[in-house]
Design a protein that fits this description.
With 369 residues, the chain is α+β, with helices and mostly antiparallel strands. The chain has 3 domains: 112 residues, Roll (DNA Polymerase III, Chain A, domain 2); 115 residues, DNA Polymerase III, Chain A, domain 2 (Roll), CATH 3.10.150; 112 residues, DNA Polymerase III, subunit A, domain 2 (DNA Polymerase III, Chain A, domain 2, Roll), CATH 3.10.150. The chain contains 7 helices and 27 strands. The strands form 4 sheets. The protein has a 9-stranded antiparallel beta sheet. Strands 15-11-12-13-27-26-25-19-23 form a 9-stranded antiparallel beta sheet. A 5-stranded antiparallel beta sheet has the order 5-1-7-8-9. Helix 1 packs antiparallel against helix 2.
Length: 369
Amino acid sequence: MELRIDSSVLTHAVAWAARVLPARSPVPVLGGLLLDAADGRLRVSGLDYEASARIEVEADTVRNGRALVLGRRLLDICKVLPKGPVECAVEGARLSVTGGDARFGLSLLPLDDYPAEPELPAFRGVVDTDAFAAAVGQVAVAAGRDDSLPVLTGIRLALDGTTMTLAATDRYRYAVRTLEWKPEGEEPGDGGGADVVVPTRRLTEIARSLTSTGPVRLALDGGSIGFESEGTRTTTRLLDGRLPRHDKLFSLGEHAVAATERAPLVEAVKRVAVVAEGDSPVQLAFAGDTVQLQAGYEDDVASQRLPALLEGAESMTVAFNPGYLLDALGSFDTDSVRIHLLGPGQRALITDREDGVHQHLLMSVKPLV
């Protein structure tokens, strides 16, 4: 194998594929990246037993061939290469990487021991990458981090007609975001009808890596999910189980609604929370056209008043874990939010003003005394 390629193109390709490499693995070859040069293209692939990633870029291929090298070591080399053209060539049992006056040699890993790249599942439809990435980011904040409850560390991805629903919960909060997507298939229902749970970390990495690439094709079966856009493809295994349904939780019945500007509320929560000890709450006392924020106990207290319009009740006082409240408010991109309130210690639903496309449920806690 021998090729010439621009250093920035090589670095991007190696970094993109190296995302799926395990931090540690008892199988050394799983720490490798497979470089496959042929016909003016360089394909860089990485995988472990849970995920795979592959990217193709243009290169001047002098001699077709394949090489397997330690991926993170190659990435470290790419990051320090001089700008400009780079030459890569297999020389005996090494891959040489030369850029300007810098030259590196990497030992080759045995190709025969490298697992076959997993096949993409059946294609189900197309979604805009920027909209998808934004939606994943909005629900990911509510995903669990307790590995003893694996299904709660995932994001639910449900397909129903032309609507994709993403959802995540850690039992204390629940975020839901809907967006449009385009199913594939000539017959009605060919592209829709799915309800799976994808590991949050993997899905977040995938969504970020695909931004600004235009539409991406989604592939899905009972065990894995895949995404393919121009020059890239990635897969990851699904989690077993289902997330609890949110329909009844989000149906509040008769309740009060407080509307306020989002950015000032975020700043006020951050400001008063500096006196909060540990997970002690931030209290929001709504009355008429204002909300009074308060945190702290005894001598160490902080408060701030903001404009807010309460409908459905003369007054309402609730309190929230400040970290959870900031996560929820930060996941919205609208100027204002609506907080649907049942009462102290009960469910509260934060929505935007766009027909509930994005919803975030929080449990309120006991208000300050």
